[in-house]
Amino acid sequence: MEATKPPVRIGLIGFGCVGQGFYDIVQRQPGLGLAVTRIAVKNADKPRILPSERFSFRADELLDDPELDLLVEVIDDPIEAFRLVSTALRLGRRVVTANKAMVARHLPELVQLQQHFGGALLYEAAVCGSIPIIRTLDSYFGHEPLQAVSGIFNGSSNYVLTRMSEEGSDYNEALAEAQARGFAETDPSLDMGAFDARSKAVILAAHAFGVFLNPDEVLNLGIEGIGAADVAYAARLGQKIKLVAGLYQLPSGRLTVLVTPQLVGSASPLFEVGHEFNGVLIDAAFAGPQFLRGRGAGGHPTGSAVLADVLALQRGFRYGYAKRQPGTELQLTKGLEGDFYLRHADEAVLRTTLQQLEIPVKALRSDEHSLYATGAVQLELLHQLRDWLRTTGVFVARVGEVSATQPARETAAVRAQE
């Protein structure tokens, strides 16, 4: 009689929304041959669904445990996550992480640690929840040129925007509901400020175009300043406002990456992506356009991506980074401009904004809802002023394509309806 194969022993670091979601999925599927044998958490006094004896309170104990076959890191602190994951990789361990801010900030070093010490790191759960976008780009499109990868990468902000456009909720009401349902953190600034989506775009750039980016160099504008007037403006045009991340190959061959609110029309698949769902558009040179849609937030959807990585590690899967090569030229903001919509309740603030962004005052418009402006804006200026725009509450959304400024205007594969 054949001996029963022992289960894969997993050390779980973090037991918040994603950690509990992953744990529940494993418990519901005993046939997978997985066992979460140790769980490390930070706060010993926090009430939990499992008895206290199930938990360790020093994550380093799991790193040093030879009985564990692999580690799953799902904490929300990117600094501590990097310390734990990098230490585990130096020990040659196999690790799954969902910490997108940590991966985006340290990806070159994480790749180097795997190569040097023989460990392995997978992070599908770090980008777009349940959508298998990293594996798709790394494996399926690993050797096909891509013209663009764009979409809604953050379920929390998309939930807020959906509630505002479809239910008439104001921003604070919609945000509070997203937090109550577990789609947004108590501190929502990373989601609403587009920092979360920026981290995901940086990660995808490595797999889609072979480029390792510094997150700070990528333009990100959030939705903190949005109001009913902005939603109404888009609706009058038959459009919706979405927070869209985009990686675009310019006609020059250079790559640009940005994350901004964007007016999206009904011709785009993103138009119907609502609530906590994410949607990713892939424009491949030979395969043509592809669209993936799935839940981008929540314990079970993200936990399912963690599970997929755990099973992939067991099969020996590693990311290939097939497109990585030196010399890929970037054009993140310099020499590029786009058409934007800008609004603020205070006319003086809006006029100052137009001056800062070198938009003529004659671009000011008014309707029954508010005073606003539209015009061409240099992306470099938006990047320089993004903190000021966020602090003053000016809402900015892209309404047109991105193109090169003088001396030569080259049309990019970036359109507002994509």
Automatic annotation (TrEMBL):
A matching Pfam family: NAD_binding_3
Phylogenetic classification of the source organism: Bacteria, Pseudomonadati, Bacteroidota, Cytophagia, Cytophagales
Membrane-crossing residue ranges in chain numbering: none
Family according to the record: Belongs to the homoserine dehydrogenase family.
An example Gene Ontology molecular-function term: NADP binding
Pathway assignment: Amino-acid biosynthesis; L-methionine biosynthesis via de novo pathway; L-homoserine from L-aspartate: step 3/3; Amino-acid biosynthesis; L-threonine biosynthesis; L-threonine from L-aspartate: step 3/5
Organism: Hymenobacter arizonensis (Siccationidurans arizonensis)
GO BP terms, alphabetized: methionine biosynthetic process; threonine biosynthetic process
Domain (Aspartate/homoserine dehydrogenase NAD-binding): residue spans on this chain: 14-124
Keyword vocabulary terms for this entry: Amino-acid biosynthesis, Methionine biosynthesis, Oxidoreductase, Threonine biosynthesis
Name of the top EC class for this enzyme: oxidoreductase
Residue stretches making up the Homoserine dehydrogenase catalytic domain: 132-311
Listed SUPFAM superfamilies: Glyceraldehyde-3-phosphate dehydrogenase-like, C-terminal domain, NAD(P)-binding Rossmann-fold domains
EC number: 1.1.1.3
Name listed for the protein in its UniProt record: Homoserine dehydrogenase
